[in-house]
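Pipeline run #58 for the internal structure catalog. This entry was flagged by the ingest filter as a single-chain record with no existing model, so it goes straight to prediction. Upstream metadata was stripped on purpose; only the residue string is passed forward. Reviewer on rotation: M.T. Logging verbosity set to normal.
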Amino acid sequence: MILVVAVVVVVAGAIAVHRLTGGDGDGGEGFGRGPRSEPEEQWRTEIDDDLDTLVVADDERVYVLQQDVDSEASDEDAAVAIRVFAASDGDELWDAEVGGDLEPGIVMPIGEDQVLLVDRGEDTAVNEDLGESGDDVTRLVDASSGDELWEVGGRLADSYVTIEFFARLPLGASDVFIVEAVDSMVVAVDRETGQELWSEEGDDVLPCGDAVVISTDEDDDSGDDAADFSPSSLTAYDLRSGDERWDAEGQLGLCDGTTVALSTTTDELELRRLSDGEEVATLDLPSGDEAWSGFPVGEHIVVQRSTFDDEEIDVEAAAYPASGGEPTWEESNAFAFPVDDDRILSISSGDGDQDIRLVRLSDGEDIGEATFPSDENDCDGAFTDISVISCETGSGDIEAYDLDTLEERWTVDAGADVAYVAVGGDRLFVATDDGELLAFG
């Protein structure tokens, strides 16, 4: 299982992205529900067995995204094919195609009956700078029929995927979407009509709660390409009106809906209120060549920093009380992922496997531990509100571990090597290398 996600400036690997439906378990707050006990197979249907596969699911539907990633054929042949199935019985509902690379964020279900499709166009790769292509389109679609409701030029902000995971802020809760368009324009779009509400220039954007923070790179006149820290101009706007709330300088971190983390130097990080920009916490951190990235977790701020040396990634992570003081937890060669307001998963690699520890932030104590397959594993896992689900390349076994203890809850056999898993409602959906989509519940 690969339990690594892009944390704004910390990038390594991938994580399975599932819909956040506000589960009611005692484990991870805001994750989807998933199976409550050992699941049984409910249905299976055929999908293409020759293509790379990604699965996204919600309570009502499961979206299978497939692409010939190694294709050197025409752009049309390399498009991402989307097939939509009813979660309850596997009946195929509709299909579509979009351009771009196979990745989370192409399909974003919102609410019970709508889904956003992001078409990056034939000329736009995932990491190209804004403005290099005008082919990006974001479409709001009726999730039952596939009928288009509206479309706008530009792509849905990339940061929504990370925000859904870290802040548990589902996209469907908002009535305004942020789109990154040509010429480095950030555009606010009304969910109901698809009409532009306002726009501003920016190089990076973080929609969060009722605000959006836009980062604009500043010109570096020093001539020093190896400068340790390059602050950006940061401006927070009201999500619907576009009214400016506050401005600052630094590097943009993550948010929790009410506050946002900003790196102001390589050894200092601030936590500011989104409503008025007031500084609510400042951390003095160990100095280094790279800046720290941070995200608020309850009464703590979790910080991470990656240093690249000879193609090796050196990762540091720690948790500090937002009120100040010494870290309650710190570790090298580890990534941290929030479980709830007082717990994180610490993920570190060693001896070809990943060591997973459940840590309580208030005292830094380990609550549970487990070992998952290598971080070179191509089969991403998934989270539910009570479990973390693990799968492994070359195996049909899927295992669920309790998010309160990291003890094994259940194991199921998909009957063939697992390519991808996703959680939607009370079900677990599994795509296999043999070209089948299975539902367990």
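catalog note: The chain has one domain: 41-221+229-440.
catalog note: The two ends are 21 Å apart (CA to CA).
status: ready for reviewer M.T.
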